[in-house]
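Backbone geometry:

***
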Amino acid sequence: MSTFFIDNQDLIYIVVLSVLLGIEVISNVPAILHTPLMSGANAIHGVVIIGAIIVMGHASPDDYLALALGFLAVLLGTLNVVGGFVVTNRMLEMFKKKK
């Protein structure tokens, strides 16, 4: 197990630094911008949907685990994308002038 960490030491450093940088960046974002940032981040999850479809396409018909995980990833990714657009739409409706 320790050889895994030694072999992938550079990648582990990158992940840890990315997490710390992400926390620092997000903590300095004003509260008013959290909703647009989160809805945009949710919309980016379309990449997850494409990846899951590719995984399901390359999985053998007998590999039920890969097919189930791929289906679950497509389902959850779709919900996340739709949710991101719903939040964005609702947020934009708040800024429209009322008649």
Remarks:
- Residues 5 and 12 are 8 Å apart (CA to CA).
